[in-house]
C-alpha cells in the first residue's frame, strides 16, 4: 500500500457538474436478455471448466468489482493478469449513457497487463455466487463482459481465477481508442445509473487505496477533469 495517496485531479465536484437526472429508456429495440436458463448454463459451464476445482475459487477484480464486489469474499490479495489490460472499450447506450449520448465502460481487453485484486470466495454455494455475479456482469445477448478463467500472478505464485473479459464480437465493442477520445466521452456521458466520470473516479480512487497505480487511468482522470472544467454547459449546471 502507498504510504500516501496521490491527489486526483478529478473530484466529486467535477462529477456533480456532469450529473443530471436521466430517465431509463428501457431496452433497445430488438435487444434480447439472458434468461434464468441462460445464466444457469453459464454457471454450469464455468464450474465444469474450473481449472483447479479442489483449490479455493478466486475472482479477479480490476474495476467496479473492487469498489462494489456485491458477493461475499473471505480473503484478498493483489495480482497481475498478463495478456490483459483495462480499457474503456464497452459502449453504453443505457445505464451510464443514452442512445443520444453513449457512454463508455471499462472492460478487460486483450494485450498488456493489468494489476487488480484477487478475492477468495467461500466454498459453499458457489453456484449461487456465480449466478448472482453473472447477473450483475452481463444482461444482454450476446454477453458483452464474458466470464473466463485466466492465470493471475501473485507473490505466492500463479493462480487461476475467474474474471470477465470483453467480448470483441459484441456490437457494443468500441475497439481501441485514444485516451483523449475516451475523455471526451466520459466528460459528458450520463445515464440513469450515473456518469462515466463517476465510474472513473470510483475506480481510480479505489485502485489508489489498494496501492494499484494504472498510469493510463491516472492520465485519463486528469483529462476528464480538464474537459469538464472547459465545458461551459457543465459549468452552468452548478
From TrEMBL:
<dbReference type="GO" id="GO:0005737">
    <property type="term" value="C:cytoplasm"/>
</dbReference>
<dbReference type="Pfam" id="PF04752">
    <property type="entry name" value="ChaC"/>
</dbReference>
<dbReference type="InterPro" id="IPR013024">
    <property type="entry name" value="GGCT-like"/>
</dbReference>
<protein>
    <recommendedName>
        <fullName>glutathione-specific gamma-glutamylcyclotransferase</fullName>
        <ecNumber>4.3.2.7</ecNumber>
    </recommendedName>
</protein>
<dbReference type="InterPro" id="IPR036568">
    <property type="entry name" value="GGCT-like_sf"/>
</dbReference>
<keyword id="KW-0456">Lyase</keyword>
<dbReference type="GO" id="GO:0006751">
    <property type="term" value="P:glutathione catabolic process"/>
</dbReference>
<dbReference type="GO" id="GO:0061928">
    <property type="term" value="F:glutathione specific gamma-glutamylcyclotransferase activity"/>
</dbReference>
<dbReference type="InterPro" id="IPR006840">
    <property type="entry name" value="ChaC"/>
</dbReference>
